[in-house]
Amino acid sequence: MAREEPLLAPRPSSDGSSIRNEEEEFALLTGERTAQRAEKQRGWKFWREIGLFAWALLATVLVIVLAVVYQHKPAEIHGPSHDSKNITWGPGGKPTGKRNVIFMVSDGMGPTSLSLTRSFRQYKEDLPIDDILVLDQHYIGTSRTRSSSSLVTDSAAGATAFSCGRKSYNSAISVTPDHAPCGTVLEAAALAGYKTGLVVTTRLTDATPACFAAHANLRSYEDLIAAQEVGEHPLGRVVDLMLGGGRCHFLPKSQQGSCRGDDHDLINVAGKNGFGYIDDRAGFDSLKGGDNVSLPLLGLFAGGDIPYEIDRRTQNEIYPSLEEMTRTALKALSKATEDSEQGFFIMIEGSRIDHAGHGNDPAAQVHEVLAYDKAFAAALEFVENDSTPGVIVSTSDHETGGLAAARQLHKSYPEYLWLPSVLDKASHSGEYLAARLSEYLSGSGKDGKDSAKRDWVRKNLVKDGLGITDSSDAEIEALIHPEPGVGPSYVFADMISRRAQVGWSTHGHSGILPLGTDSLHLANSNIGVDVNIYASSSKDAWPLVGNNENTDVGAFLADYLDLDVNNVTKLLQDTKTGLFQSYDWMGDRLGLNFHSEGLDTYHGDFRKRSEDDCGCGATH
């Protein structure tokens, strides 16, 4: 007969019920009370719970400590290994021994510039999506960019943060908001026995290089800046090597090619202060990549800015590239410090990334970023192979243009794409094509019929220069008969931006909306966004890992070389002259109404600011 199951199945016992069952069984067998045993069981259970709680608390504290330590540990760099040269860290966390600093500035390059350029390169060279830029492999943090006078900095205030480690107003050249000079890392390096250098693709008198070797109340005082750079400076000559453009500010007014307001011959002054001078490709080639350089050296390869890389590559016999100048400068400074107890400090700038942003020219932009990436790679190669330890830090002063790698062309639902193939077809910048157009309209096409002009522009500039074959009559008309304030260079750039579906939130220096543009044409096209920081080694640049103020970058440069920038500031501030104890050598002081510190507020003048020029000047 089958065994009958109980009406109620046995219920599993808990830990507590098992103890209870043992107590009941003990009582039945012995007839004794179980209170004492139960008390012991409860005591054991109590202390077990206390022990488990203590262990959990200890484990939690340990996890928190490890998390804090990990958070402050330098981020590991992905990609090729560029390890530290085992620099000895001295008291106070500063390195000791001979060392070099290579500080690189990608003027106007924001995070989207990298995204745009990376995708363009992958398309152009048929690379996989994980083939990234050299810069991408060395990302360590970000930098906050505001100035003392605005949430949106310009290059002058941005570079002052790097050079002096201080916030200042837009347009200030290493001058504090109270119009006093602040010592720079380059000046401090020179006084400490380091060799120093500046390499740029814009004018050597432009804001970024100026902030390391000069002091001026306004960035527009370029004639004064040029004089200080060649030695007419309270501290004497502080720069050993300068390569870039801006020759017109060094030539006397009476000489062809000058843009000075006086007859001061700074090439002659430079010679008296020991500078060798070169001004063309032949002179640059004679340097033999840095093996044949006698310092100090001044190299001015263009009257103004060196052409955009997209245009320079077809004029290589005239202008050296940023990569070439970087390699030459580093080799020259290394040789000059071979037998010295001190190394060198150099600032290298990819200057015209900023200009491409102001011009809303995506074709020029990607080639400028690629040129900068090559210069960064050249600097990495130098650091890896040079016998002296060193660090490379690369960052931007701000982003320019409000670049977006997508653009809504119509009111209908947007397409999620942008087209790098459009940029690949462009062989020149809008700036270059606008210059050619001006030459044509003032030369062979001057007296021609409009129909002939349209045909010439459509074929020789739009098709051959931009690779565009579907230009509209309205676009060609805007080039031949431009509206006031809307230069042809912007029209060329807008044509290619729209077809590539690349967007910009701000433009150049005009208040006019060309060709039905969907964005306000603002006077200042810098953007208040955080920018990236890159380094040769996160171990050497560990204080910059994570999010930083731009002044933290300046502080790190001085700390790494153990420089006393405050002492330089004191020396400079002891130069007051005149009845009112002012710094006359920095140029005219700004008016009382000039806003140098504190953020502005909205004044209810939107319409007026939309229609009129802001009066702030063309600042980058």
Automatic annotation (TrEMBL):
Gene3D superfamilies: 1.10.60.40, Alkaline Phosphatase, subunit A. It comes from the Eukaryota. It is a single-pass membrane protein. GO terms for molecular function: alkaline phosphatase activity; metal ion binding. Its EC number is 3.1.3.1. It is an enzyme of class 3 (hydrolase). The chain crosses the membrane at residues 50-70. Pfam families: Alk_phosphatase (PF00245). It is found in: Membrane. The active site is at 155 (phosphoserine intermediate). Keywords: Hydrolase, Magnesium, Membrane, Metal-binding, Phosphoprotein, Transmembrane, Transmembrane helix, Zinc. Zn(2+) 1 binds at residue 349. Binds 1 Mg(2+) ion. It catalyses: a phosphate monoester + H2O = an alcohol + phosphate. Its main location: membrane. Its cofactor is Mg(2+); Zn(2+). This is Alkaline phosphatase. It comes from Penicillium salamii.
